[in-house]
Structures are given as structure tokens and as C-alpha cells.
């Protein structure tokens, strides 16, 4: 099932090219994985509003087409709230592909924030294959102040089955920080004769303000 409030927001994001004005944030780290695709171009980093952090996310995915040109993962949106979860900071996204549908968001447990991620990517198949690049993403949630050892995995529905998860998760945001920003690498639409892949890679910023 699609959550229509999330879909409506992200239609607006796409209508302005996935661009939102970013507030100044105090970034203490940038986290990434090593298996990201390379077909796309990096879009601008987009941040949660000041004093809010990622506590949930949703993904935009084109499911398997059969005989068509598959693109799999097309977009990721972060859902932002204050650390205690009482004040919403809305949602933010970087570049977004044109294919697929948004799926229901998933949220960290109360009192936790997103601080680490893994990405599932299909490596290039060569001239005879249908490349999809990024297929799925998942996160880990933990306390903002300390890494308690009680981290929980967060895996939203909708991801597709091609490719492999990175051999290692990203580094975790340092203690007293959490994911606050997103930057995506998205391949522009290639037209009817091209092999589209849409979202290829992603980086996340960690903030402590």
C-alpha cells in the first residue's frame, strides 16, 4: 500500500527537480558504502531542518517489468523529527528517478535515530544485460547520545531482488550525531534506446546540531 501523504510530498519534490533549499547544519561525518553504481551524476545534498534528524524513510521503486527496461530503486526520502520525536521536520530527498512508485515508510523505535546504512546494488552486466544498479537500502537505528549495543535494523518494503548488499555496512554516525542529510547519484533518463538505471549510489550526512 502507498501512503498518499508521502507520495504527494514527493510529487512536489520531483516537480522542482528534487531540489529543496537546505538549512546550514553542523556536519560531523559523511557515510557511504563501497558498492555504489557509477552511471549517474551526484545531486545536491539536502538536509533535515535544524535540530531534526532522520527517524524514518521510504523508497521509490520500479518493480520487475519482465520484458521492459528495469530500473529498480529510483528514490529515497528521509523523514525528519526532533530527537524525542515530538516535532516533525517534514521529509527531504535528493535527486529522484522518474520511474516506479513510493512505498510505505518505516520508522525507528521511539527515542532512536538513523545512524548507519547498507545498499543493495547490481553491478554492471555488460552490453547484453539490463542494468538496474541500486535495488534496495536499509538502515540501523540507535540512541543519539551513545551507541548502546541495542541498535535495530530498519528495512522498508518495496526493494527489488537484483544485486548484492555491500560486504560491509557504512560507518556509523559518531556518538551525539545522527543522519541529517542525503545526496543521491542518479542516472538521467536515457530515452527509449538507452538502458536506464535511475538511482546508482547514495551518501548520508551526520549532524550533531
TrEMBL record:
Database matches in Gene3D superfamilies: Vitelline membrane outer layer protein I (VOMI)
InterPro entries on file: VOMI (IPR005515), VOMI_sf (IPR036706)
Endpoints of the signal sequence: 1-18
Entry's transmembrane regions: none
One of the record's GO cellular component terms: extracellular space
Pfam families listed in its UniProt record: VOMI
Keyword annotations from UniProtKB, A to Z: Signal
Nuclease among keywords: no
PANTHER family reported for this sequence: VITELLINE MEMBRANE OUTER LAYER 1 HOMOLOG A-RELATED, VITELLINE MEMBRANE OUTER LAYER PROTEIN I-RELATED
This protein's name: Vitelline membrane outer layer protein 1
Record lineage: Eukaryota, Metazoa, Spiralia, Lophotrochozoa, Mollusca
